[in-house]
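Practice problem. Given the sequence and the SMILES for magnesium ion, write out the predicted structure.
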Amino acid sequence: MTLPPAIEAKNLFKVYGRHPRDAMRRLRAGATRAEVADAGSAAVIDASFTVQPGEIFVIMGLSGSGKSTVIRMLNGLLPPTAGDVLVQGTSVVKASAKELRGIRQRSISMVFQHFALLPHLSVLDNAAYALEIQGVGRDERRARAREILDRVGLGDRADAMPDELSGGMRQRVGLARALTAGTDILLMDEAFSALDPLIRREMQEQLVELQRELGRTIVFITHDLNEAMFLGDRIAVMRDGRIVQNGTPEEILTDPANDYVAQFVQDVDRARVLTAGSVMAPPAATTPVSAGVRGALRVMRDLQVGAVSVIENRRFLGTVTDRAVIRAVKDSRTDLRSLVRSGRPAVHVDDPLTGVVERAVESPLPVAVVDDAGRLVGTIPRVTLLAALGDVPPVTRENPVIDLPASVPASEIAQTLAVVEEPGAATGPAGRAAPPSRLAPEGPRAMEGASR
Ligand SMILES: Nc1ncnc2c1ncn2[C@@H]1O[C@H](COP(=O)(O)OP(=O)(O)OP(=O)(O)O)[C@@H](O)[C@H]1O
Ligand SMILES: [Mg+2]
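Answer key:
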């Protein structure tokens, strides 16, 4: 059985003023908020979107763009001028006052920016307040509130009074109160905006973690694009009452619908939003570990690169450089595995670029990208990384950028391959390769090695 969407907003309008019908007619014909100003104040114009269960859906836009008006229509605090809102399949627009109370208790709760904690109640009783309204007994509601307070890091402050807490802590009590209510859907209107940047960042991370753990659906309003990009599975961008784009953070960042959105995303911390998977190039230079050092060297020669990724059973083992391989060949070592640079793990496809940047700073090698099974799915050369961070047009497929050029002259690689592929040299330590000064030119024997 598939769940109904958590929320469906269908062609929502909210028009204040004396002539809403007249304004509506013109808005439906495409008029802007400014053009109907004589007839009314068009707070929200034809907003439609769907929020799936377990999703963090962010509504973002400048002050006055209509965000709060939208969110208030989602839980029936404001009746729309036109349109409908379904919460888990039930219309809140058509619901009676009694039904609406039920929906708010069971399905949808709200965290405001400056929600009032009840000053005469302890942190614990504030957190348990929604359950009290629901008629849950004292012991049970206190036990459940305690559990949630632990989750938001306030377990040791349960008995404090609100005025003994910092702003950030109070905000967390508000979050705990909404979480304790046990509703599937949380509406959060600028819930973190009053916090200083460090605490705010911490709260954002905590919210993502809580959401993963508890699987709630969250509609989060913010005018801060970095916050939107960090939290949102999807983001709706609002301007002058209309939703001008609705997409994933990456879609909005890499393919803004118009100049307004493009201007918005200019200052985004791209490293925190883009994932390794979104910027990686297909892995070009790879070799199976079984191909040995000569196999690796051949790939480097053919592609003219200074490093290759070593694969075993499709899993990524690590990277080898041309210098290391040439040295091994000259020392008559054949085992590629021992050359793989350890201590430089790959990044996961879903990792943000911040992690990739760290790797790229440590070493000039392209950063390997793996999936859940540890399979190599791409690499990120430094140039690709820099292009992504600087929003430079992506590299075309026909002309792959090779980040690490060969550090050993091609002629030396060719000569080394030729010598090693002499009979005996390939059989292991017993057959020492000739010193570089006596390298033979690459001859027909090279083909024997190639067929191995
Ligand atoms: N009761 C009202 N009467 C008339 N106009 C209103 C009313 N409430 C809101 N508006 C107008 O509707 C528009 C949207 O307001 P809303 O509060 O939804 O914006 P917002 O995006 O939440 O802004 P902010 O970021 O400042 O909170 C604004 O232009 C506002 O002036
Ligand atoms: Mg608002």
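Check your answer against the key. Residues 16, 41, 43, 61, 63-69, 223 surround adenosine-5'-triphosphate (ligand 1) (CB under 6 Å).
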